[in-house]
């Protein structure tokens, strides 16, 4: 019987299978993982879920090799991240296992110093001086135009005093800060700890060391376009820590990340890149992984809308914060749903894609404020348990898809222990087996 591509969804797991599993593969296909945004709680949720995902893998049989090899997230070929996902993608690609990523988020790591609120919430205090300068420059330009009798290009007539005063008043908007916090605090934290852990803050050097490709994305505010950072991308000279800070620069929360353009001087290239959160352009970047040669891609998105089915109740009762949360998650989730449809229908995409998201009735995670730093421990534990549960509920389907790529999954546990069971907080050491990575 001829193979027909499949589109399946159950308990937060979506499977798009487009490759015929009966066709033999003469070479091992690349596997990639794509990590979407999620701010603080979403990043922590992913950190816990990544550990559960890593534990689900057992080994991989590679064509031409007589014996299977142990397989885990550390054996993926390509890591793609945006916003909070860029932080996790970077440490995984650099060779830090999911166990250690989990500990970094919980502040029990010996590799990275504990992540504190001031590492991502440094007040944007010094921008005002710069903005005052911009304001005064504009005021001088407008006043000089009127005083000199210059002609307004739009009307063809000289500037009037009335129009000049109006424009000078409007220019006061230039005094407003462009964000509450400075993303360079995150860059400083990452750069310092990458050096401490002996990791390279360079895309080319990381790829040369590990053979793992890392791709991070941000949004070019001046052109409204996606910017991709990676060892084989045009902006590969931007340090990894700086690219992560740019990818995480949520508008309003952070001021834009201003980066000296390493391609300045080339035709059409500005001297500076004004960058913001990569999530403005995409919820995830599955296509990047596919275009880089992946035949199997796992996409992990922590934010999707809740299905509120409690009898006689409404989200309206919970007030404005809850409605804003649902609206934002609906926007993020619906964009990814559209991407799933496009992936399924696009004949140029020949890969199997697995999407991991919270279940539609995951009220516990829905109630966690994305920017609440003190939610991260609870979010990471919940992420582990939620993803372990979702993988178990879809084990048969996932096992058949992964098997087509030579990957064997572990049988799910009947009652997986909570994430906290893996750690003795007194000794700050893992209590059970090591990660399969």
Provide an overview of this structure.
This protein is α/β, with parallel strands linked by helices. The protein contains 13 helices and 17 strands. Strands 1, 2, 3, 6, 8, 9, 11, 12, 13 and 14 form a 10-stranded mixed β-sheet that branches. A hairpin with a 4-residue loop joins strand 16 and strand 17. Helix 1 packs across helix 12. The two termini are 37 Å apart.
Summarize the structure in short:
The protein has helices spanning about 40-55, 85-95, 100-105, 125-150, 160-170, 185-195, 205-210, 240-245, 285-290, 320-345, 365, 375-395, 395-405; strands at about 5-10, 15, 30-35, 55-60, 70, 80, 180, 215-220, 225-230, 250-255, 255-260, 270-275, 295-300, 350-355, 405-410, 425, 430. The protein is an alpha/beta fold.
